[in-house]
């Protein structure tokens, strides 16, 4: 383990042990470095790394503070991972979605207030009969976020939101103009909302699985076509 990694681990342990709590200010750099047996340069590198993943907040002229440590804040860094991965790796994120979102949807069928389920229906109605791709993507993101939030588990919601990043969705929906894609998406959303309204967790789980698996299958087929097309043109 590098010196910087050791410094990161030491600060993390202070937070885990409750010695540093959300909102607390870290001791002076010189004092903390001496206490941890580290050079000030190593400590600075550790603080910089932890600030990038939103564990610490460096305030110029004020000091360094532990953030709120809210799951949504900590998981925000995963959005960068999603954005910078290739399409074939995005398939792995889709596989994670296929595991997490059906579970979140099933929980939402048990926990989501009826008023919020009704609002999901209104959200779908707001699209009209012929939405643009941009409108559908925005609506889709909001639809899935509300369901994840309705599961009543903040950590789960943060994971779902992170994996369902906006850039990832934009890539997945490149083929939205294919025949009946819009209609199919809307129909699946309606089925999910209906299962939530009827408090049928397993039906909701099944529809969510079908919905995400359909996107995953589309992307797999698209990647295969992209791989085979250059070879075909070269023949």
From TrEMBL:
Keywords: DNA-binding, Transcription, Transcription regulation. One of its GO terms (molecular function) is DNA-binding transcription factor activity. SMART domains: FCD (SM00895), HTH_GNTR (SM00345). Gene3D superfamilies: GntR ligand-binding domain-like (1.20.120.530), Winged helix-like DNA-binding domain superfamily/Winged helix DNA-binding domain (1.10.10.10). It holds the Pfam family FCD. InterPro entries: GntR_C (IPR011711), TF_FadR/GntR_C (IPR008920), Tscrpt_reg_HTH_GntR (IPR000524), WH-like_DNA-bd_sf (IPR036388), WH_DNA-bd_sf (IPR036390). Residues 1-69 form the HTH gntR-type domain. PANTHER family: TRANSCRIPTIONAL REGULATOR, GNTR FAMILY, UXU OPERON TRANSCRIPTIONAL REGULATOR. This is Transcriptional regulator.
């Amino acid at each position: 383990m590098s010196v910087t990694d050791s410094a990161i681990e030491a600060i993390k342990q202070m937070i885990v042990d409750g010695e540093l709590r959300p909102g607390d200010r870290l001791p002076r750099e010189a004092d903390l470095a001496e206490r941890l047996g580290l050079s000030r340069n190593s400590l600075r590198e550790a603080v910089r790394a932890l600030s990038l993943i939103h564990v610490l907040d460096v305030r110029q002229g004020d000091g360094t503070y532990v953030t709120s440590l809210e799951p949504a804040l900590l998981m925000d860094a995963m959005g960068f991972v999603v954005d910078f991965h290739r399409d074939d790796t995005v398939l792995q994120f889709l596989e994670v979605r296929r595991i997490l979102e059906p579970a979140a949807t099933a929980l939402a069928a048990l926990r989501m207030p009826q008023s919020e389920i009704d609002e999901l229906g209104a959200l779908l109605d707001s699209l009209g009969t012929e939405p643009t791709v941009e409108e559908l993507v925005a609506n889709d993101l909001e639809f899935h976020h509300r369901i994840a939030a309705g599961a009543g588990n903040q950590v789960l919601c943060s994971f779902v939101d992170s994996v369902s990043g906006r850039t990832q969705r934009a890539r997945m929906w490149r083929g939205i103009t294919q025949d009946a894609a819009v209609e199919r998406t809307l129909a699946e959303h309606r089925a999910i909302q209906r299962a939530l309204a009827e408090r049928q967790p397993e039906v909701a789980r099944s529809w969510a699985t079908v919905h995400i698996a359909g996107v995953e299958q589309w992307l797999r087929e698209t990647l295969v076509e992209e791989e085979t097309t250059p070879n075909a043109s070269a023949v």
